[in-house]
């Protein structure tokens, strides 16, 4: 006896969007089973971060038709993560986030494959990032975003008409949250502004000037940071302060109290001490859910074209640079909150570049969702054509590396140099350093096969806001007199 | 300007503003040029190049030009009909009523300013009416009228100040001054609350000190959220709003989806399936859905308005599908609101939120 049950496809809901044509879709949209199958088989997505956003992203992407995911995170699970990083349990504390997250999602969603990477983003070769169709970011720092942005934009090349070459474009979807607030944005290097183009939007991180800490403290936080940053070294010279060691924390608290008493300042508590020293920003599960959901939707739309995306909704005709003063009058604490992107206004102007649209979410005062548009910086260090350097053909690799430290736009120390698929010089690990050391005395021109001009990528450390961060830059090198040399060679050859 | 080298920027701004006002007949900088000039004066006051407090003064000089008085939100609040309290009124409205009556006392105006006000108003209608009355009551009436009509007056001081570049001693002193004024404002309000409670027949101590303090602290952020029953909104959404939203470019897609979501429900009731649910019937469903939409708009009192073809087609294309990401988003928003309500923090959402995952012109609709 035959059963007449209709087999419900797991993909029933997604199929409506992927298999059916529509009017509000991307211009390149080709509906059909092929699209759905390609999404599953060929689309590889990298999720950077396996924390609050990362867990949500992995779940959302796995349930949105993507079967090949990878996740990278250098942290281990802590007890304080458990209120929102829902893939983790108490018994997982201490284990690497990326590995546990991958395992849990694979247990729940059959057919999905997630490769975890328990390491720093800088530890991966640049080529690692090349294989992904989209990189989705669930990060919690400006530095990390800046680095990944530089890597993704580093792949970008321009043709002779200054148009981005499509195959070299590596889109990113970036999400961020803080308390009740969050944002999601789509970055298409070469078209929309990249992270570096609009990095000025971020207000500088709260840093207390040393003289305030040392001489004129006014707030409880100043007293705490005095104990943490100044007094600790004076008393425990050599020993590193460990914020997770309760004895260390207690010591800082006691010293902070003493200092506060000395200056008549109120408000030093143990809990504030922890908050200031660890830079704790409260995290709410629902905000992460919301922002990740938007990021996932955008990723789905970007890869499949099944609907218009944040980045290309407006047609060329309708371009305006709009930044509405998003919610500042409704920011409850009078916007003493220095961590919101809401503080800036830009004037309304016209532009002929494609704009970045950011969806910003503010859940504190009622509910505000605003889409704002920005313009790419054509001289951007990350997504522009790259800093131009003119060099003599005689310049050695060592001299080139030294130059990078002094160059005003770069200020890059301990540089490693990569040309096409070759490591010309690597500062680390030791094995590679030894292998490439001999290149240092050779002319860079020769190492690059005597091309008159080409692109190299350099990685190293630079200083941002008095903090050392990893940095990657794309450089356009032009060798002076090189054309003449090759002509000569040809003449000789003939 | 000697003596201000280590002073917090607030002090610098107040002194500079006073000097300006003296030289400009009591007015503060208002035109763009005047504001620039004011900033230049600040710069001129710097002795060395890197005085943080002067730099902060320049950065925050806009506080001097900002319009004074209470916000329109607060003004609306004190004019709300609920602020006419009786024995049934809630503690919140009793405190609002106290705020209203106390506004005049919190102006903190100098006497010569009041006299100037009296002189200016003597020729006006208000002045004529009041001039025959006792001086003190004149002050009260005039000030009240001024505050209520002109929007002057200030809400009770919150008391806390942000960090500012300054010597410790001056900063701590400034903090004390603000805290004292906040305490004084609180005491005034507390007094008024007690007397209103007595007047309406309640125990004058029935609103706690902590509650009144909290009210004062948050006076600048007070908000009243009024909600319609879901049933009311469903059976009787405000037609004028519907029409307005449908014709406004920013709102039309969100509003269109609102209509469509309701039309889809109606469709399902009529046809026992959702539009676009089954492959073969897509085209038919589009025209059926369109008919339902027109009928619905009629019933809602919006015969002239339309929902675009594109949206109707898209709705059928969706075929009642549920994408995980959209569900996660809505779930996140809803739980966000629950958290706010349970923890009694921040401001809950008022209205109907329509998520638009296409171009993200999602909107909060008041219907």
What is the secondary structure topology, with strand pairs?
The complex is a heterodimer of chains A (494) and B (367).
Chain A: H1 12-19, H2 33-41, E1 44-48, H3 52-62, E2 68-72, H4 97-108, E3 113-117, H5 126-130, E4 134-138, H6 142-154, E5 172-178, E6 181-187, H7 210-214, H8 220-235, H9 246-263, H10 270-278, H11 285-304, E7 355-362, E8 368-375, E9 387-392, H12 397-406, E10 413-419, E11 422-425, H13 430-436, H14 444-447, E12 453-464, E13 467-480, H15 482-493
Parallel strand pairs in A: 1-2, 1-4, 2-3, 4-5, 9-13
Antiparallel strand pairs in A: 5-6, 6-7, 7-8, 10-11, 10-12, 12-13
Helix pairs in contact in A: 3-11, 8-9, 8-10, 9-10
Chain B: H1 9-23, H2 32-44, H3 52-59, H4 62-65, H5 72-79, H6 91-102, H7 111-122, H8 125-130, H9 135-150, H10 168-199, H11 209-217, H12 230-235, H13 239-247, H14 252-271, H15 282-299, H16 309-318, H17 324-343, E1 352-354, E2 363-365
Antiparallel strand pairs in B: 1-2
Helix pairs in contact in B: 1-3, 6-10, 10-11, 13-14, 14-15, 15-16
* End-to-end C-alpha gap of chain A: 84 Å
- How far apart the termini of chain B lie comes to 57 Å
Strands of the biggest beta sheet of chain B: in what spatial order?
Answer: 1-2
Going by helix content, strand content and strand pairing, the class of chain B is: mainly alpha
Q: Runs of chain B with pLDDT <50, length 5+?
A: 104-114, 116-152
By DSSP, the count of extended strands of chain B is 2
Pathway (chain A): Protein modification; protein neddylation
GO molecular function (chain A): ATP binding; NEDD8 activating enzyme activity
Protein name (chain A): NEDD8-activating enzyme E1 catalytic subunit
Pfam families (chain A): E2_bind (PF08825), ThiF (PF00899)
Give an overview in words.
- The complex is a heterodimer of chains A (494) and B (367).
- Chain A is α/β, with parallel strands linked by helices and 494 residues long.
- Chain A has three domains: 210 residues, Rossmann fold, CATH 3.40.50.720; 69 residues, Orthogonal Bundle (Arc Repressor Mutant, subunit A), CATH 1.10.10; 94 residues, Structural Genomics Hypothetical 15.5 Kd Protein In mrcA-pckA Intergenic Region, Chain A (Roll), CATH 3.10.290.
- Chain A has 15 helices and 13 strands.
- Chain A has an eight-stranded mixed β-sheet with strand order 3-2-1-4-5-6-7-8, with helices on both faces.
- In chain A, a hairpin with a 2-residue loop joins strand 10 and strand 11.
- In chain A, helix 8 packs across helix 9, helix 8 crosses helix 10 and helix 9 crosses helix 10.
- Chain A starts with 11 loop residues before the first helix and ends with a helix.
- Chain B is mostly helical.
- Chain B folds into three domains: 64 residues, no CATH class; 114 residues, no CATH class; 141 residues, Rossmann fold.
- Chain B has 17 helices and two strands.
- Chain B has a two-stranded antiparallel sheet.
- In chain B, strand 1 and strand 2 form a beta hairpin.
């Amino acid at each position: 006896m035959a059963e007449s049950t209709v087999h419900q496809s797991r993909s029933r809901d997604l199929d409506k969007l992927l298999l059916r044509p529509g009017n509000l879709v991307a211009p390149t949209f080709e509906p059909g089973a092929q699209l759905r199958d390609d999404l599953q088989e060929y689309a590889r997505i990298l999720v950077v971060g396996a924390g609050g956003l990362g867990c949500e992203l992995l779940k959302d992407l796995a349930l949105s038709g993507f079967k090949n995911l990878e996740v990278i995170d250098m942290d281990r699970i802590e007890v304080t993560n458990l209120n929102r990083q829902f893939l983790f349990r108490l018994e997982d504390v201490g284990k690497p986030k990326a590995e546990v997250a991958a395992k849990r999602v694979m247990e729940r969603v059959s057919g999905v494959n997630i490769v975890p990477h328990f390491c720093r983003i800088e530890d991966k070769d640049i080529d690692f990032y090349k294989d992904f169709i989209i990189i989705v970011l669930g990060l919690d720092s400006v530095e990390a975003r800046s680095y990944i942005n530089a890597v993704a934009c580093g792949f970008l090349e321009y043709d002779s008409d200054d148009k981005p070459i499509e195959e070299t474009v590596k889109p990113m979807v970036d999400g961020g949250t803080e308390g009740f607030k969050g944002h999601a944005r789509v970055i298409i290097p070469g078209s929309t502004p990249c992270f570096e183009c609009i990095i000025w939007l971020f207000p500088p991180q709260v840093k207390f000037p040393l003289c305030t800490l040392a001489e004129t403290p006014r707030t409880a936080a100043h007293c705490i940071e005095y104990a943490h940053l100044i007094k600790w070294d004076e008393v425990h010279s050599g020993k590193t302060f460990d914020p997770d060691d309760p004895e260390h924390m207690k010591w800082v608290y006691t010293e902070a109290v003493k200092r506060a008493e000395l200056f008549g300042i109120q408000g030093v508590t143990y809990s504030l001490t922890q908050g200031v020293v660890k830079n704790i920003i409260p995290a709410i599960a629902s905000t992460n859910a919301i922002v990740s959901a938007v990021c996932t939707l955008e990723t789905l739309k970007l890869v499949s074209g099944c609907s218009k995306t944040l980045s290309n909704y407006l047609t060329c005709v309708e371009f305006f640079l709009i930044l509405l003063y998003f919610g500042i009058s409704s920011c409850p604490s009078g916007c003493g909150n220095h961590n919101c992107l809401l503080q800036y206004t830009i004037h309304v102007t016209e532009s002929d570049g494609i704009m970045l649209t950011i969806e910003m979410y503010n859940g504190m005062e009622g509910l505000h969702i605003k889409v704002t548009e920005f313009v790419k910086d054509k001289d951007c260090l990350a997504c522009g054509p790259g800093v131009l350097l003119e060099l003599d053909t005689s310049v050695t690799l060592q001299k080139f590396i030294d130059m990078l430290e002094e160059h005003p736009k770069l200020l890059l120390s301990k540089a490693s140099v990569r040309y096409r698929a070759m490591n010309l010089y690597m500062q680390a690990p030791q094995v590679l350093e030894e292998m490439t050391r001999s290149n240092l005395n050779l002319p860079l021109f020769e190492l690059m096969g005597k091309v008159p001009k080409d692109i190299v990528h350099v990685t190293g450390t630079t200083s941002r806001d008095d903090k050392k961060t990893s940095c990657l830059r794309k450089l356009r090198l032009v060798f002076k007199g090189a054309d003449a040399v090759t002509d000569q060679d040809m003449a000789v050859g003939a | 300007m000697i003596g201000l080298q280590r002073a917090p920027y607030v002090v610098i701004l107040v002194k500079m503003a006073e000097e300006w006002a003296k030289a400009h007949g009591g007015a503060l900088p208002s035109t763009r040029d005047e504001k620039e000039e004011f900033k230049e004066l600040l710069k001129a006051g710097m002795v060395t190049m890197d005085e943080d407090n002067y730099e902060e003064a320049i950065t925050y000089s806009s506080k001097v030009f900002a319009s004074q008085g209470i916000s329109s939100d607060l003004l609306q609040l004190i004019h709300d009909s609920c602020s006419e309290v009786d024995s049934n009124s809630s503690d919140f409205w009793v405190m609002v009523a106290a705020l209203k009556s106390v506004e005049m006392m919190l102006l903190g105006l100098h006497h010569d300013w009041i006299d100037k006000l009296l002189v200016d108003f003597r020729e006006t209608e208000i002045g004529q009416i009041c001039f025959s009355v006792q001086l003190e009551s004149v002050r009260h009436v005039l000030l009240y009228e001024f505050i209520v009509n002109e929007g002057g007056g200030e809400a009770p001081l919150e008391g806390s100040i942000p960090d500012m570049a300054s010597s410790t001693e001056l900063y701590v002193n400034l903090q004390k001054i603000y805290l004292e004024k906040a305490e004084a404002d609180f005491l005034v309000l507390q007094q008024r609350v007690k007397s209103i409670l007595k007047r309406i027949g309640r125990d004058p101590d029935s609103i706690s000190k902590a509650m009144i303090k909290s009210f004062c602290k948050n006076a600048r952020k007070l908000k009243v959220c009024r909600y319609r029953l879901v049933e009311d909104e469903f059976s009787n959404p405000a037609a004028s709003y519907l029409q307005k939203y449908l014709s406004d470019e920013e709102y039309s897609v969100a509003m269109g989806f609102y209509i469509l979501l309701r039309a889809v429900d109606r469709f399902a009731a009529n046809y026992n399936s959702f539009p676009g649910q089954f492959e073969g019937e897509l085209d038919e469903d589009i025209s059926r859905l369109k008919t339902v939409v027109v009928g619905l708009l009629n019933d809602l009192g919006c015969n002239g308005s339309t929902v675009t073809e594109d949206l109707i087609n898209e709705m059928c294309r969706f075929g009642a599908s549920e994408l995980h990401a959209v569900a996660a988003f809505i779930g996140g928003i809803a739980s966000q609101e629950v958290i706010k309500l349970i923890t009694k923090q921040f401001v809950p959402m008022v209205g109907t939120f329509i998520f638009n995952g296409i171009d993200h012109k999602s909107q909060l609709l008041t219907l």
